[in-house]
Protein: Phosphatidylinositol-3-phosphatase SAC1
Amino acid sequence: MAAYVYTSLKLHIDPEKFYVEALDSNELMIIDRVSYEITLVENKGQIPPSAITRTIFGIMGVVRLIASPYLIVITKVSKVGDIEHHPIWRVEDTQVIPYTRSVDHLNDQQKQANHDYLRMIEEVLRQNGYYFSSTYDLTHTQQRLNNTSAEFLTFPLYERADQRFVWNGHLLREFTSQPELHRFILPVLHGYVSVKHCHVNQRPFKLIVISRRCCYRAGVRYYMRGADFEGHTANYVETEQIMDYESSRGSFVQTRGSVPLHWSQRPNLKYKPTPIISTALKQQDGFQRHFDSQIVLYGRQVNVNLLDQKGFENKLVRAYEDAVQNSKSDNIRIESFDFHRECRALQWHRLSLLMDRLAEDQAKMGYYLCRSDGSVARLQDAVFRTNCIDCLDRTNVVQSMLARRSLQSQLQEVGVLSLGERIDDHSAFEFIYKNLWADNADALAKQYAGTGALKTDYTRTGRRTILGLLMDGYNSAIRYMKNNFYDGFRQDAIDLFVGNYIVDEAECINKPCPLQQPRSVRYTVLPFFLLIALSMCFICLLIPAADWSLQLLYVLFWGMASITTLAIVYYNGIEFVDKPKLTQAKAKRE
Structure:
């Protein structure tokens, strides 16, 4: 029997216990709020009549904070669509419920720290892009699922899921140690899923895009770059485009990820901080571990490198190309393309140069195609791994173009398009396709950088527009503010959510709280003085004085004071940005 998870549930909250009732079964999961014990029993009226009852659609898991564990449940969902008749759901709202009924047993510092940790969990849960299915494994590609045995498909969903893409894996650890609870254990994907119903030549088919964000080196834009010692890279995403026509399914898989070397790019108030390539760590080791795993998973790696070949990005280009050359592997190829230089002055048609250079690789790697009778007509035996500095804006544009070329070949092969007919010939479908990939770009950019993607006007319309340039400017400004003054908190929140940092219940008793780190005096004094200087400068400008020369002198004095203070703040920028605190606390603990 195929595995599935209960998603039609009632949560009954009693002062002593949580009762999770499966409505399509007689199973009842009981969580003791005092001993934390979890038991599975037959539902025989154990639920107290006084319990508070609410409908839930799944359990995200349990997180342990200072006060007690907290149960995280899904309270609102919306249907995305169906894949092979399996419904796919997006999480719209959640609730975090404490086991303890009071925090009076904590001291003041503990209460504040617990409150901050709770805000972090809620911050991550508020982020859009959580998806699940109770009957379909969203974490695997079509080709991987086809290559499995019939026995594998009977395993519980959480056991057979690709753990790289199970974002609540850490939260589920309270349940996974008890195999009998498997129908309550719901793997949740983070990224983007969309199902579109399309028509071309009066032939209906589905177009599906699934982007799976990896949780192993999760984080935000500037605080998570490069590769770790195991070879996991920042902002790693596997994106699969699926075409489903009359039960014939085609799939094309691409990946993206930060340059797989040991490097960092910490915010320091500069618009583009300079990347720092580590000289203390063995670059080739992490690089090789990354590609060893990628080759096993996907086959030959065609690395599309879109970094600038001038300026600070060029150092990464040279280091990346050297690492590929030193690997001496026939399964690793790099194609560098200076996106910004080639497409400067809105010359976006020059992307065709890159597409021409990748045409042979794409023809060789192919795509996965399974016929309606279950026979496999084609397999994809290689993958494009695309990167820019963030693996967002430039990467999104190129991935959508590669996916488009693959889709055109698939539609021709299954008979939706005739030989020689192009997607461009069908404006209604082209509109759906472009917006689907632009929405994917926006979702991934918001999750990593805090704003929608740049350059999506090209993805949506096929050309650059003045409005698009203005929106890029707006999003760039918002990114600057978030990356410098908010992302330390976001990084801490993600580390807590995925289990990179484990809260010690004894925190803030006999040792300092990790979230309460002292700041330099300049952190408080300089911004305050800058505010006063700017205010005085404007006051002197706006209020007329009897002696205009004295007024000018005051304006110059306060203006120079403002400029000098700004220069000091900018020069010492790293002291004024919002930095993660839990990473340092974990390092000290170890």
The chain has a mean pLDDT of 92. The two ends are 45 Å apart (CA to CA). Residues 127 and 447 are 7 Å apart (CA to CA).
